[in-house]
Amino acid sequence: MFFGETVGNPGLDVLDIPTVSAIAHEAGVPLLVDSTLTSPWLIKPFEHGADIVYHSATKFLSGHGTVIGGIVVDGGSFDWDKSGKFPS
To answer: What CATH number does residue 45 fall under?
Structure first.
């Protein structure tokens, strides 16, 4: 699995999702994108090639800091069986 952040902390580097996605898929593994710093409205990693996205429920989805949580979403684009690398 390849892992990247939409905007890296602390350097604020922006991930080139399409390029990293192409490299991951060529290797037969999914791309997980941590979208904690960006809201689902600001950037949509699935539209750029991500297979799995993590969103912070604390920052943008709930709108306040009274909860701690996150959401992992599988976009359904990665063929887990075909890769042969994830038997279960």
So the answer is: 3.40.640.10
Q: State the residue range of the domain holding 63.
A: 2-83
In a structure prediction context, what are the per-residue pLDDT tens digits for the chain, which is 88 residues long?
Answer: 999 999 987 888 999 999 999 999 999 999 999 998 887 788 999 999 999 999 887 766 666 667 678 889 999 999 998 888 888 7
Cα angle 46, 48, 49; round to 5: 70
Cβ-Cβ contacts under 8 Å for 31 (sequence gap 6 or more): 1, 2, 3, 4, 17, 20, 21, 24, 25, 49, 50, 51, 52
The answer to pTM > 0.90 is: no
